[in-house]
DNA sequence: ATGAAAGCGCTAACAT
DNA sequence: ATGTTAGCGCTTTCAT
C-alpha cells in the first residue's frame, strides 16, 4: 500500500535493520548514516506501521484510559491531564468507557486491554473493582486516580478528610441540622462517595450530633439528580439548615432547587460542594477543591514510571491536599 | 507470552485458518466446527492480538478523534457521543488532541493517523484546516462535527442562524446597544465563531443598526475569558444594554463580572449564550441550545457508514436545528 | 468446509 | 557500525 522500511533502506543504501535503528535513535549507528536514513525517510514520507512494530516488539505503544464517564466534568478534566502528560511521549491514548451500567461493553475489558495497551490509567474505580483487580493480578501496569491503595500507584484526595472538612465548616458556622446529598444508596466504604460520607458522619458524631437519615438524598452525581435530591430534602417535615453535596455538579442542582422554592443558598440553606468546578466560582458555591488536571497528569507519570521500571517498581501513592474555598453559599446559621 | 491462534487450533483440532474464520463469524465454517473452536478459544481465554490481525488485514480497527480540547464542555460532550456510538462496534477510540497552540505535538498528525486509524471524527476544526485538508486529500475517511461542508460528512448547527437568532431575540426585547463576546480576534468566517458573529452583524444591520466595535470583546471561549471580556465592555464609555456571548461558558463568566459590579443579568444587562450547557439552567441563562451528544453520535455514524461504503460514499451533511431557550438572563430593555 | 502456506512490515538476536 | 535472518500472530489466497 504505502512506503515501507524496505523502500527507505533501498533509498539510503542500507539494511532495514539499520533504518530501524537509525529512525528510533538507537546506538551503533554512524551519525552520517543516520542522517542519510532520516533524509531518505523524510523524502519518501515514511511512517513506520504501528501494527508491524507492535507485533514485532511486543509493545503496544499505547496507554488506555479506563473511565466510567467521559462527559462529566471531573472525568473529562482528568482525561485532559492524561492527554497533557502523553503529549510529549510517543504513546497513543486509547479511551475506554467502562463500568457505566447503562452501556455494557462487548467482551471483557481486562482481556481486550492486555494486548492493546502497555498500561492503564483508571479513573474513579475502587481498587477492588473487578476490572482493576484482574488487571493487577495479571501484572498489568495500572495507575489509579480518584482512589488510594498501597499495592498500586494511585493519586487521590483524602476523601474522608474532605467530608470532614466540609462538614466541620458547616458546624463551625453554627449549623446543627446538616443534610447530605450523596450519589447513590450504597454503603461501599471504598468509593469516594463512601469516604466522603464517612467524613461527614465522623464530623457530626465528633460534634455530638447524630446524622439524620431523613436528611440524606441521592443525586447520582449529576446536576439534575442533585436538584431532585434537594427537593426531596426540602419536603421532609424538618428541613436542614445546611446541606453537604458530594460534588459541585449536584450542588448546582441543589441551588436550582432552592431558587425554585424561593430560597437563597447561603441565606436560607447553606450549601457546600466538592470539586472546585469552574462554575462554583460564578455560582458562589463554597467547595472543597481538588487539582483535577494535575491529578490526571501525576497518575499518568506514575504509570509511565512504573512501566519503564518494570514490576519491581514501587507504586507511588499520593494523597493530594484539598482546600476549602469559602464563598457565599455557606453562611452562619441564622439560628435562635 | 500468551495463548495464540495456534493453541486454539490445536485444541480444537483444526487449522489456524479455520479458527480465524470461525471466530470472526465468516462463512464456510461448519456450525459444529465453529462451536468447537469458540469453546476452545473460550477455554484457553484466547484473545486475538490486534497488532497481528491489523498487520495481516491492513485494517486498524480504530477510529481517531481529533479535538483541539478534551476538557471543555462542548468537546467532552461530543466525545461522549462518539464513545456511545462506538460502544457496540469492535472499534477502538484513539483520542488525539490537535491544534491546541499551547501544546504542539510531535510529528505530523495526518501522517501518524494514516496507519493508526481507519477514519477520524474531527471536532470543531474548519474544513480547510491543514489537518483536515491533507486527510481528505489522502482519501482518509473523515467526519466533521461543528462545521459543515459539501465534500465531507459533517454535522453542525447553522452558526450564522444561531447568531442571528440570539441577536434577534435581544432586538425583539427592545435592545439597541448589543455587545458581543467572541472567542478571539480573527475574521476567519469559516469557524463557528466567525459565523455566529456574521449572524450577529446581519441581525443588527437588518434592524438598521451598526455594530459598535467598542462593544466587542474576546473571551477565548473560557469562563475566565468571558469574565475579563465583560469587564472590558463594562469599562467602555457607553455600556450596552445586552451582550451576546458566543458560548455559555463565556456567558457564565460574563455573569460573574456583572455580579461583581453589582449588576444583575437580565435586569441591568441582558445576556444570551450558545450551547445549552447544563449549568445554563441553574444560572438562568438564555441560550441557543444544540444537541451535542447526538451530534457526536451522528458524526460517528456517518463516518462508519462512509468507511464501509468506500470512497464512493456520498458524504452526509446534517444541519442540526437549534432552539432558543429563554430564561431570565434576557429581559426587555428598560429603555426610555 | 477445511488446510497449507505465503506474507503483512517490522524488530531483535546474532553475525560479521 | 552494519547486515542477515528469524520470527511476531494473524489473515488470506489458493488448493483440495
Please describe what this structure looks like.
2 copies of one chain form a homodimer. Chain A has 336 residues and is of the alpha/beta class. Chain A folds into 3 domains: 5-56, lambda repressor-like DNA-binding domains (434 Repressor (Amino-terminal Domain)), CATH 1.10.260; 59-156 and 291-319, Rossmann fold (3-Layer(aba) Sandwich), CATH 3.40.50.2300; 159-289, Response regulator (Rossmann fold). Chain A contains 13 helices and 12 strands. In chain A, helix 8 runs parallel beside helix 9 (192-206) and helix 10 packs across helix 11 (248-260). The longest helix of chain A has 18 residues, at 292-309. The radius of gyration of chain A is 25 Å and the shape is elongated. The model of chain A has no long low-confidence stretch (mean pLDDT 93). The interface between A and B is large, with 58 and 56 residues. Chain B binds a DNA duplex (16 and 16 nucleotides) through helix 2 and helix 4.
Question: In brief, what are we looking at here?
Answer:
2 copies of one chain form a homodimer. With 336 residues, chain A is an alpha/beta fold.
Backbone structural class of chain A:
alpha/beta
The named CATH superfamily of the largest domain in chain A = Response regulator
Biggest beta sheet attributes of chain A:
6 strands, parallel
Taken in chain order, the helices and strands of chain A follow as HHHHEHEHEHEEHEHEHEHEHEHEE
Number of helices of chain A: 13
Shape of chain A: elongated
Oligomer: homodimer
**Percent of residues in β-strands of chain A:** 15-25%
Q: Label the CATH architecture of the largest domain in chain A.
A: 3-Layer(aba) Sandwich
What is the CATH class name of the largest domain in chain A? Alpha Beta
First-last Cα distance of chain A: 81 Å
Computed CA radius of gyration of chain A, to the nearest angstrom? 25 Å
Biggest interface and residues each: A-B, 58 and 56 residues
